[in-house]
Amino acid sequence: MTTRCLPAPPSRKRRVLATKPRVLSAHGPQLCDVRDPRRSQVYWKRCASDLFQNCLPADHGHSWKQLFFEKTVEEALENFDGSEQTHAALANLLRTAQDYVYKLRVRQFASHADVALLFDNLPNLYSLAMTYGSRNVGMKYERSIFGMKLADAEFLSQQLPRTETLTTLVLNENILDDEKVPVACWRRLPAPAFAGIITVFSVAAVSDRAFSLQVRRLVVGLRDNMTITSLDLSHNKISDRGSRALCKCLGKDSVITTVSLYDNHIHSEGGKFLGRALQSNVSLANLNVRLNRLGEKGGCYIFEGLKSNAALARLNISGNGLGDGSGQGEAVRVMAAMLRVNRTLGSVDLSSNALGEDGEPCAEGPY
After folding, report:
1. What is the pLDDT of residues 84-103, one digit of tens each?
2. Which of 189, 192, 194, 365 is the most buried (most CB within 10 A)?
3. What is the pTM of this model?
4. CB neighbours of residue 165 within 10 Å
């Protein structure tokens, strides 16, 4: 007599998978059988929920498996101390998780290690956010561990030309300065090599003096990079020198579509460089320079550049000291003249400027 085995119902399978042990070894970040097809999203949801709080699969490709591996790698990077032993363990983890890691948000990177380790082992990485330093240090605060150093900027600059997948780069609160940004902007490849690729580059909290070297190094890497088209350097201390260096990436052959420079130290001279770049630029669609120090002259330079620009769709120039409170300032007149001839600008934020009541109507007209 033959006994037939009926397949278990789906509900039973989900309950069994949900009770299987985690894939993390107790001896370190060694992952086992990660490609096992029997481990469903229910299983990976349990793994992620047990280890991490506030898990949102929507931020990780709507996949619990991707969320688990990305969070695991983030945690390993944040706890990485740079020693040889932990370096080998981290490299093994990255190789194991390479098929499931697409974006990373590293909130502390105190080791200041070479980021080549990430680019060599994560071929699918398209979004990288990294803050150099350490959180919750308390009385163990040491100024030297915070911010991106010149060596860090050099490491990153060397990797930017190599990557073929990175589309988002965020460097928040890294005390970047004018020296770190220009390393990325002097050798841009021909425009066809960049077509159709979008990247967000975000750098925050940059100091003025250091920005000269750090920015210079990053700019060189950006010039050779074939993927970055969106640049965010907000919450820094970028000055006019940094603005001039960055404008080298915004020439007529540029493919950058978004630039955020809000909350920096850009004055009228930096506005002049931005205005000149806008005259020939054909790719930039979004520009955010709010909370700078452009003043009347800097605003005039930007508005003059927009008279011959046919690409920019959104401009945020709020909080820059434009106008004299009467609505009769030079910046107001130049802006009104620009709006009469510009047919592509669809949104302008002029809040927190002294335009006055008479200056408001020109910002409300059709453009």
Report:
1. 889 999 999 999 999 999 99
2. 194
3. 0.75
4. 15
